[in-house]
Amino acid sequence: MDCLFCKISRGELPSIKVYEDDTVYAFKDINPIAPVHILIIPKEHISKLEDITPENSGVISHIFEVAAKLAKDMGLENGFRVVSNCGEDAGQTVFHIHFHLLAGRKLGWECQ
Ligand code: AMP
Ligand code: ZN
What we know:
21% helix, alpha+beta, 2 helices, five-stranded antiparallel beta sheet, binds zinc ion
């Protein structure tokens, strides 16, 4: 499949890896909007949040464990945010589900 994040997780395209295990890959966002901006993805291709099912949701809960571990390892005591954009109105641009881990500055809540 011609999917950017599948290729990144397989090492076929470059990325700055911050974490990897059997099912999950995490790397630095190429266009960061905060001092810490990491993308956490399942290695398995799932297009978007509404495609999560009872069969594939195990890796999604594991992604949140990884987010908690990364936040601890990076010492993000002031807090952090995990967000997944789903579909056009939310601004999803890459259709391989991903979770943005954002931190390092005060994050606003209002969406433009
Ligand atoms: P979204 O808009 O929620 O779909 O997020 C896609 C994210 O992927 C954006 O924050 C992009 O900056 C990021 N991105 C796109 N291509 C790459 C890449 N090759 N390496 C790292 N991050 C990327
Ligand atoms: Zn993919």
